Amino acid sequence: KNQVEQSPQSLIILEGKNCTLQCNYTVSPFSNLRWYKQDTGRGPVSLTIMTFSENTKSNGRYTATLDADTKQSSLHITASQLSDSASYICVVRQSNFGNEKLTFGTGTRLTIIP
Amino acid sequence: DGGITQSPKYLFRKEGQNVTLSCEQNLNHDAMYWYRQDPGQGLRLIYYSQIVNDFQKGDIAEGYSVSREKKESFPLTVTSAQKNPTAFYLCASIQGQGAGGELFFGEGSRLTVL
Q1: Do A107 and B42 lie within an 8 Å CB cutoff?
Q2: With contacts defined as CB-CB under 8 Å, which chain A residues touch B4?
């Protein structure tokens, strides 16, 4: 069964600290993986996309990694800010002979406290 | 600015009533999607449409209906047959079918059944 599991479910850190969110998946065949940020009561917004050949990619204070062999991805947030408080969702795209399917993780709820 | 507009933002419904959620996009995207988001669960696909006048059931289509009469519009009707309709509904669109295609989400509609 294709699954995307994220950990931790929730995380609370002090402003200015770093944190790392994890995403493990069993989706196959793998096409790409995206990290989305979802503010409370809003729609998700894409942070970064990782394809099979990419190991790491940065978007400002956000750095995503991908290990396609172990089927793991992480999202590292540096020098956290209060505005980073949100849910972070990992989404894996499966592509099989033109049929594409997205599998969503349940998200990590991140709270930044001053 | 280009984007996806969902309305209403909040909606209350009595049991037995049908309600329609609006989704309009001016991104000139071909494909549009409806997702349902519940606490502790990943987004689940209700319906999707890849072209005007055509749509397909997703994983949880029972109790829902859609139409795609115009490229820009993809309304979702939550019927009285949906046994547990209280949820946050997200509309999304994507350009083409490429593996790198990014889902753009609306701001969501929160439906509460009284």
Answers
A1: yes
A2: 43
What token pair was written down for B104? 């753009």
Closest CA to A80 of A17, A5, A3: A17
| Separation in Å, CA A95 to CA A27, A104, B33 | 10, 15, 17
Size of interface A-B (CB pairs under 8 A): 48
Other C-beta atoms within 10 Å of B1: how many?
3
Residue A96 has pLDDT above 80, yes or no: no
| E-state strands within chain A | 4-7, 10-14, 19-25, 30-38, 45-51, 56-59, 62-67, 72-77, 86-96, 99-104, 108-113
Query: pLDDT per residue over A65-87, tens digit each?
Result: 999 999 999 999 999 999 999 99
